[in-house]
Every structure is written in C-alpha cells, then in structure tokens.
Amino acid sequence: MEMAEPRIGVYVCNCGTNIAKVVDCDAVAESAAQLPGVVVARSYKYMCSNPGQEMIVQDIEEHSLERVIVAACSPRMHERTFRRALESAGLNPYFLEMANIREHVSWVHDDGEEATQKAKALVHAGVSRVARNEPLERMSVDMCPNTLVIGGGIAGMTAALEFADAGKKAYLVERLDHLGGNLARVDLTAPYLDSARDIITDRVRRVTESENVEVLLDAEVRSLEGFVGNFKATVHQNGRPGESGSDVALDVGSVVVCTGYKEFDASRITHYGYGKLPNVITSFEFERMLREGRVETKEGKPPQYVAIVHCVGSRSEEFHSYCSRVCCMTAIKYAREVKSALPGCYVSDVYVDMHAFGKGMEDFYERSSELKTLFLMYERGGHPVIRKADPGDDCGMLIQVDEQLSGEVIEIPADLVILMVGMEAREDSGDVARLVNISRDKDGWFIESHPKLDPVATTTEGIFIAGTCAAPKDIPDTVAQARAAAARILGKISVGKIEIDAVYAEVDEDHCSGCRICNELCPYVAIEYDPETKRSHVISALCKACGACVAACPSGAIKARHFTDEQIFAQIEGVLA
Amino acid sequence: MAIRANPKLIDELEPYGAEDVVKCYHCGNCSAVCPFSEAPYVFPRRPMRYLQMGLEEKLKGDLQPWLCYYCGECSDQCPREAEPGETMMSLRRWLTSRYDWTGISRLFYKSWRYEVGAVVVVAILTIIGFLAFGFSQGSIDHYDGPNAFLPSSSIHIFDWTLAIVLLALLLSNAARMWWFTMGRDKTLRVSVGTYVSRAYLLVVHFFTQKRYSQCERKSPWLVHLGLMLSYVTMLILIMFFLAEMASGPGVDWRVHVFGYIATIGLVASTIVFLRRRIRKSSAAYKHSHESDWIFLILLLAVALTGITQHILHRYGVDVAANLMYVTHLAFVVPMLLLEVPFSKWSHLAYRPLAMYFAEVRAAGLEKAEREAAPAGDLQAA
C-alpha cells in the first residue's frame, strides 16, 4: 500500500563558515524544497544553536511537520540535540535524519560546485529515507542496586567503600584469603613516604566492618550472565581445608573489575643474573626487607653499595614496550630509604629516563638527588650487565653500564642490586575478560570505552574497570578510577532504571530456522538461543545495533530497528537520484 | 674495557671544595657559556660528570680543570646551583694533591690545620735558624756592612738553595703531571717536534695569561696579571739584585724603582683579592677554601713585613730592621716552601703547563685524524 507522503522539513546548517565556505547552502535548501513531501527548507547559520533548534520546533508546529532532515555535521556530534528538539515539539525522535555535509562534504572537498552537488544528493537520500522511518520507543529496565567488585586490592576496596558509603550493597570478591592486593606488599609510598600498611589496614577494617560490603575471600567469579542492571553472578568460594567449596549466586546491576597486575618475572632477563646472583633482588623482595626493617645482603651484612636498576621488563622491545609508571619514583623512594637506614651506603640509580610526573614527584626526585644518589643513564634498548666481582674488589658485584651522560662504558660496584620489575597483565586476565565480556589490548590490559573521555567504562555496558588491570598506574590514579567507576554506577542506581536505545536488532521468530549462526557472530553476546523453541532471541539491552547478525542471517529473519532494508534502499535510491 | 667507577670519590673531593657537584643534572649550560669550552675540551660539564661517577683515573689524567680561569660565568648560569666553577677549582686542588708525590699536599687539603701547622712550624724554624745564624756571625745592631746580622751574600746563597729545592719539587710534580695527562695515554702519539714547536706557549701563557683575558669580566685577569708580574719582578730583584737592594744607606733608584712599583702592585692586588673574597663579590670569590685565605694572608704579610723592614732600615733603626727581616723571612720561607710545591701557588706551573699540554694533545689528535682519514678512504674504495 502506497502511504501518503509525510510532511518533511529540511534544515541546512552553515556551521558558521565550516560548511558554507565550500557548500552553497542556500542552493541545497532550494533544491531540497523541490523534493516530494518537503514543505519547508531553510538554510541557517548554526542549526545547533538555540534559535536554530527553536526554528525546527516552531516549523513543526506551524507547518505540521512529520519528519525532519538536518543537513549539518556528523550525527555523532548533534543527533541527540536535534532528537531532543523533535521530542520537545511532540514528534518521535526517530523521525529525525541527519545528512552529514560537514565531515563528509565541506571538510573533505575543495570544489564548491561538486561539493554542493554531493550535499544535495545526501539531503535527497535523507528525504527518501526519513519518509520510511518508524516511530520507535526507548525501553527501560530496572537497575539492580547491588554491585559486584572483583579484586580486593586498593581499587576494589575503595570502590566497595564508595557503594557502602552511599548505602548500597557491594560484593567484594577476592581470590586470596586476605585483602590488600599488591599494595599490601609495599612498605612506604612515594612521594610523601606514607606507610602503605596504614592505608591498607584502615581500608580493610572499614570494608570488613561495613554492613553494606559482603567480602568473599578465597573466592572466584565463575560466571556472569545477563545485562546491565540485571546481571547474575556465580561466585565459587573455596572451603576450609577438608571442606568442599560452595557456589554463591548474586544479583548485581554492575560489575567493577579491579583485578590488578602481576610483577614482571626478572629471571627472564638473563644478563641481570636474577636467580643466580643471590644479592640481585626484585623491588618486591626489597619491599619485604624494608617491611621487616632490615637492609642487608643474603650474607646478613649491611651493603656498602646498593644499585637500583630501572625499567626491568618495561620499555623494552624484547618484553614490554610500555612504561610501568610507578617504578621510577619507587626507585627514588628506595634510594631515600637505603640512605636513612644506612647513611654511609652509596646508592647508584641506573635508569633510562627519569619519569617524575605527578604531584610532588619532581620535588621528591630533586631532594633525592641531593642525597648523593649517583644517577647513571643507560640507553633505551641497551642494558646494564651484572656480574660477580673479582676477589680483590671491595664489593660483591659489578654492573657494567654504557653511561649516556658521559659517553663512557663504566663499571659500578654493588653489594645489593634492586631490580625495578615492571607491571604486567595477570595471566588470568584473558579468563576475566571472557567472563565479563570485555576486550584486552596487545599487552593484556583491559580496554576502556574511551581512553580519555570514558576511562573506567568498557564497551560492555555495566562492566567497569579500575586500577592496574587497565594499565600500570600509581595509587592516586587507581583510587581515582575506583571512585570514578563507583560514581558512574551510583548515578545509574540513583536513576533506578536503565534506558536502552530503541535501535537494536530483532529476530522474527516465525522466520528463524534456529541455525545459530548469529549466536556465534554477535560481538556483544547479545543473542540467546532457546533450545525449547529452537529459536534465537536478541537481548535488546545488550545489543549495540552493529548489524552483523542482520547481514548474516540466512533466513533474513533479523531486522535492525531504524536500519531496515527498506530504509537503507530508500536512502541509496535517494543519493543516486 | 669498562672504566671502574668509585662512588666514594665525590666524598673524597668534599674537603677540596666540591660540595655541590651532586646537584648537576647535565643541562650543559655551563659548557655553553664558557669561552674556553671547545672540542676536544668540553668543560665544566664533562669533568663534573666524571666526578659524579667517580672516574678517578680519567680525572687524574684530565687537563680540563687547568684550562679554566674561574671567571664564574658557569656558576652564575647554573640552574641547579651546582657551582661548576667551584667544582673545577676543587678539581685543581685535588689534582695538585695527586701530582705531588710527597703526600704533603693531600694532608694540606684534607684539613687546613695541617697547612697552618706546617706554616707555623716552618716559620718558627726559620726564626730560630736565622736568629742563631745572625747571632753566630754578626751583630743585631748592624743591618749591613761587614758586621751585618743577616748579610745579603749569605741570604743570597740561602735564596738560591731554596730556589733549587723548590724547582726540584715542582719539576718532579710537573713530570708526574705529564705522565698522568700525556705520557701514560697509549692512544696518544705526539712527536718530540710537536712538544718543541709549541714550547713557546708555556712562556706566553705564563707571562700574559692571555686566555684569562678572553673571559667576559676583564678585571680579575688584570688584577691577577698585576699580582703575577709584581711578584716576578720582586723575584728577579731578590734573586739577582739582592746586594743592591739591601745595601744602604742610599737608594739605588735603578733597582728600587722596580722594587717600589712591584711592592705597590703586590699589596694592591692582594688587598683587592682579599676584599673580593670577604665580600663574596662574584661567583669566583663566593667560595673561599682555607688554602685561598692562607695564601693571600701569607702574601700580604710578606709584603707588609718587607715594607716595614725597608722603612726601618732606611731610617737607620737597624735592630728593629733586623728583627723585621727575620719576621719577613718567617713569612717568606713557609710561603715559598709550602705554597709553591704543595698548595695554591703550584698553579703557577700547572696551569701554563696544562695549556701547553692541551695544545700539544690537540695537535696530536688532529694529526692522528689526518693520518687516519686517507687510510679510511682507501679501505672504502
């Protein structure tokens, strides 16, 4: 049945001169006015401005417009703006279509005439398509106010406490039998030399005492199903020795992944002799010494010379190309701690570049250099070589360094060598990623939704990442991320409902053959298969409307809302007309 | 072959005045402002790095500290207040103690108490010696003439003996300096001809200090030159014209005119230097090592006692003149015997030598490069 042409309004934005300097916007509006169904077509300086939006609202009322085309920038920029304008005029927001004549036209073309032609074609495409747009309603689902926090380090505890303080329930799942994570292995923290133990102890106490935090120690998340606002998690808790463990089922609305990092295995670098030379130790082994209040060699003697080697496993082509961010200032901290424990001790700091970013760090570095720490610079890509000293030497080991500031190859004495081992993704990060359906980068770190603008969210809604599971970072950044993730989730909890975009794929179950091709294909694990009915079904809350299943379905049983075949073909016809 | 670093060296240099070298972060500003810093001698940054790392042998063979006249521009420009100028100065003190084979210099720089103690002991011995000598063969009432308390002929012999001892000490230390900086370097091939053809530089640098004049501030060079020329004039007068200087009662103007000018120069320049050190008037005078004070005070005391002795003699107060003569010698002998070979004054030999060696070394390097170049081309072809 041929339906009556809806009444369409076309608005061509000049974007100041961004569009108008290449495209003849008035000509585009004039040509649009000739198209079937178009009752009003205007060109205006800034459509996104308040007067621009008011113009649309007014026209909808005056001219009884049923569809609106805005030829302007990318829909990523202002689709929401104009959809809101339509809504405020009482029109379904999905009756808006945008023609991108800035990024796709004026910014990439010089020839004004041809660009204007292209803009006209894009507007034509929009006009053809918009007539076939369907009114869509957004859905909303209830938001479960509980949150699952995976990992009981500083990030996990901080996030859990944020929920507890807001009066919301948090389940804190820790793999080990105690809380604290890697920070619990550290003595003092840079640059203010606060005790890590104090930081941790206070948080452990608060988490344990809180009624709103349920701590599950010696436990692992086994499965996570559902979607944002409505996850079901199964946590397996190991029993005491002799007892069998038990599974706990949890209803949660969101998940914060705070699984942290593991330290680089120093024995992988053979020229440092770790594991062979007894007095070559890792930074964590040295932290242990400091916590025990002794700085000594394996022979139990105070060292006369201590050397600290930076970038062990970090910033190297062979191992990890990234910087582990915390080692430089930790090394400076060691220099100070050694000097305060053994004032007569000579400390050498063998580094590539000194990364002293962050509040208070440059001062910390400067003060430390005045303590007569000998800074020796080696070339990135090169490496110092540690060997046993000769019998006549007054030291246990000698470190050969191709020193960059002097251009000399030198040997420095050492009785104790501390290797600043970098951070790396935990070996089970792949399992965790699969469990919560998020992705990892080439180094195994979890990927955020946007590295700058959305650093704690992931591409899976309701799953957040915080701390060093996403990338190496220091305590302040980790805590900030944990709190940011909690704030994001608490915001959703306070709204109480999760709004789900009306654009998603739908399976026409009458046509579905149950072949399950789409099940495997969906990158968001949004398609469920019902073995009873032998039909697949899209969980609309998880669907991102990528269209992969639509294209793949051999029966043509899947329809993408707002991207129907009819709409797309109309658009193509429009652009070619 | 890797060079062994000695992290303790930096502590060892502290008594020599290198207190702030740890602050240096090698921006290179110091070497950029220095008018003398030019390849192959890039300082103060490089010697500062050697010192930070404790490359003791490298430093011992380094001529660079002597190529600096300490105008202080580098210290003024240093963003870290690492005092590169004073570091170079401390390295000169340290090098002086390394060149000296007797070990006396090390003691002096280890603590000023040793140096002051040695000055006092030598002064007392000088007083005792000359009083004993005077009373044994002359009369305290006679300044000159056959019965003179300290006859110029005897002092003349004493002066020359002292000069020979000093020369022997200085030359043996200078030989060690040559060995450390030139001789033991196997990579350096310099012909005797190069040494001979550039020997004139020794005299030029000694008498003109022309490199000092290249510093932005000219006044330190002028005062320094004035002090040096005054002293040399005085030395020539004493070594060769002592009889004419001492005999009275008339004034032989042909000799004395030089003596008076030199005395004025000596006193004025010493006072200028003392004032600058007291007022810390610029970077170069901000850090005064004990050895700097001892040297200037001895020099001023020598000049003032010499003047007093001369006036007393001219006015015929022979007893007082003789006593003042002994006092004068009590300052002169320690000043020469201790300061020239073992302390601050040794730079009169080491600095011109270093500049001479540096030129020879640069010529040697250039020659080696020239010789290497065609060979390389042939290989490439």
Describe the 3D structure.
The complex is a heterodimer of chains A (577) and B (381). Chain A is an alpha/beta fold. Helix content of chain A is 29%, strand content 25%. Chain A is elongated. The mean pLDDT of chain A is 94. Chain B is mainly alpha-helical and 381 residues long. Chain B is built from 19 helices and one strand. Chain B has helices spanning 9-12, 29-33, 45-53, 56-60, 64-67, 73-77, 84-99, 104-110, 112-137, 152-183, 192-197, 200-208, 219-240, 242-246, 253-279, 283-286, 290-314, 318-342, 347-380, and one strand spanning 3-4. In chain B, helix 12 crosses helix 19 (347-380), helix 15 (253-279) packs antiparallel against helix 17 and helix 17 packs antiparallel against helix 18. The chains are: A alpha/beta (577), B mainly alpha (381). The A-B interface holds A 305, 346, 348, 369-370, 372, 374, 376, 398, 400, 403, 405-406, 408-413 and B 1-8, 10-11, 22-23, 25-26, 46, 49-50, 52-55, 58. Strand 22 (408-414) of chain A pairs parallel with strand 1 (3-4) of chain B.
Query: Taking all residues together, what is the mean pLDDT of chain B?
Result: 91
Oligomer: heterodimer
Rounded to the nearest angstrom, the distance between the terminal CA atoms of chain B is 31 Å
Gross morphology of chain B is elongated
Largest beta-sheet details of chain B: none
Could you tell me the strand content of chain B as a percent range? under 5%
| Gross geometry of chain A | elongated
Percent helix of chain B: over 70%
CATH superfamily of the largest domain in chain A: FAD/NAD(P)-binding domain
Low-confidence blocks of residues of chain B: none
- The structural domain count of chain B equals 2
Largest interface: A-B, 19 and 22 residues
Taking the alpha carbons of the first and last residues of chain A, their distance comes to 23 Å
Strand count of chain B: 1
The spatial strand order of the largest sheet of chain A comes to 10-7-6-14-25
**Any idea what the CATH architecture of the largest domain in chain A is?**
3-Layer(bba) Sandwich
What's the Cα radius of gyration of chain B?
23 Å
Q: Could you name the ranges of chain A where pLDDT drops below 50 across 5 or more consecutive residues?
A: none
As a percent range, the share of helical residues of chain A equals 25-40%
